[in-house]
UniProtKB/TrEMBL annotation:
Organism: Hymenolepis diminuta (Rat tapeworm)
Residues in the signal sequence: none
Coiled-coil region(s): none
One Pfam family cited in the UniProt record for this chain: MOR2-PAG1_N
A GO biological-process term: cell morphogenesis
Protein name: Cell morphogenesis protein N-terminal domain-containing protein
Lineage: Eukaryota, Metazoa, Spiralia, Lophotrochozoa, Platyhelminthes
The Cell morphogenesis protein N-terminal domain, residue ranges: 2-125
GO cellular component term, pick one: cell cortex
InterPro entries: Cell_morpho_N, Furry/Tao3/Mor2
Length: 126
C-alpha cells in the first residue's frame, strides 16, 4: 500500500497540456483510468492520496479552462468522479480530503454542471 501511495505522490507533478487538443484529450483519458481505480480501491489512505493527486492536477486546469469543459473526455471524467466524490464528502472520515476534490470537479465542469451541483455542495459546507 505504501508503494502505491508513494507512486501517487510522485505523480503530483503531472501537468495537463491544454494544447493541442489531442494531448488534452489523451491526458483526460489517462485521468479517467485513474478515476476508475479511485472508484475501485477501498483503502482510505489510497483514496485520500488520490484525491490530493487529482486536486494537484486539476487546480491548474481549473485556472485556465474555458471552452475545453465541453470536450467529452473532460466531461466524462467529471461525470465519473463527481457523484461518488460528493457522496464520500458527506462522511466525516473523508471530508477534509474530498472537499478540495469536489471543488475542483465543480470548477472544471460545464456551466450547467456547476449550476446544478453547486447548491447541494454549498448545503454540505454549511
Amino acid at each position: 500500500m505504501h508503494s502505491i501511495i508513494s507512486l501517487l505522490m510522485g505523480m503530483k507533478f503531472f501537468r495537463v497540456k491544454m494544447h493541442p487538443i489531442e494531448e488534452f484529450v489523451s491526458y483526460f483519458t489517462f485521468l479517467h483510468e485513474l478515476g476508475q481505480y479511485f472508484l475501485e480501491v477501498k483503502e482510505k489512505e489510497i483514496r485520500h492520496a488520490m484525491t490530493c493527486l487529482f486536486v494537484e492536477i486539476l487546480l491548474p486546469v481549473a485556472a485556465v479552462v474555458r471552452h475545453e469543459v465541453n470536450i467529452p473526455a473532460l466531461k466524462n471524467f467529471v461525470d465519473l468522479l463527481y457523484p461518488p466524490a460528493f457522496e464520500l464528502a458527506n462522511k466525516k472520515k473523508h471530508v477534509l480530503a474530498l472537499f478540495p476534490m469536489v471543488t475542483c470537479l465543480l470548477c472544471v465542469g460545464t456551466k450547467t454542471f456547476f449550476l446544478n451541483n453547486w447548491p447541494p455542495f454549498m448545503q454540505l459546507c454549511l
